Amino acid sequence: MRASDAERERIAEILREAVAEGRLEMTEFEQRLDSAYRARTHGELEPLVRDLPDPGGVVAPVAGGRPRTGSLARWSDRIGKPATSSGAFAFWGGFRRRGNWTVGRVFTAFAMWGGGEIDLREANFEDREVVIRCFAIMGGMQVTVPPDLHVEVRGIGIMGGFGENAKDEAVPAPDAPRVRVTGFALMGGVGVEHKRSKAEKQRLREAQRERGRLEKGDGGGR
After folding, report:
1. pLDDT above 70 (res 218)
2. 115 plus 126 within the same structural domain
3. Which residue from 132, 116, 9 is spatially nearest to 71, judged by alpha carbons?
């Protein structure tokens, strides 16, 4: 299977943790990091972390270190937590679910003459299978998800719209939960957008700078 940028970055994070803990020498770390960013498939990524603690597949970060939350945590740590919200309602107003919250196994949202925002990029999940039911009447809802989440959109738009917009590269991770977005929009709209969080974008920028530094170092050695 082809590897995504998010999966390459997770492998890079495992390697950074390993060198910080003294499990890898700097030379070996740089070699593996370079190989991680050049990898195109899961088969190329997995050997790079096979001998490190708790690899858990090609996308799991190393155990230990500072606890991670939201989009910085591995998917297995974000599944199976008690739900903090199982629904939302807006009438002549709006609602928002975002940040570090836990979406229920079935989440129902209703908006009439109003709007709502459901952001899953930093969210935890009560179960591996989650259903989000969106009902918008003369109103609108925006569902924002990370690019590596499994998402299935099955909504109906009546004199309105119900659709998905993959803005960033949407490649589901093998261990990510599955989210099914259903419902209908009557004279309104429900949109599902794949988009990285600010924290994830910052990590990718740092990884690109580090990769550029290593490539310059390799060029200087030649």
Report:
1. no
2. yes
3. 9
Report the alpha-carbon distance of residue 126 to residue 105 in Å, rounded: 6
Look at the block and give the residue holding tokens 């070996």.
28
**Cβ–Cβ under 8 Å, residues 87 and 35:** no
Verify that 87 and 33 share a domain, yes or no. no
Q: Among residues 216, 178, 211, which one has the least CA distance to residue 39?
A: 211
Tell me if 13 sits within 8 A of 203, measured CB to CB: yes
Strand-pair partners of 87: 108
Q: How many domains does the chain have?
A: 2
pLDDT tens figures, 25-43: 888 888 888 888 888 888 7
Q: Are residues 150 and 203 in the same domain?
A: no
Residue 182: count other Cβ atoms within 10 Å of its Cβ: 17
Distance of CA 50 to the CA centre of its chain: 23
Are the C-beta atoms of residues 93 and 87 closer than 8 Å to each other? no
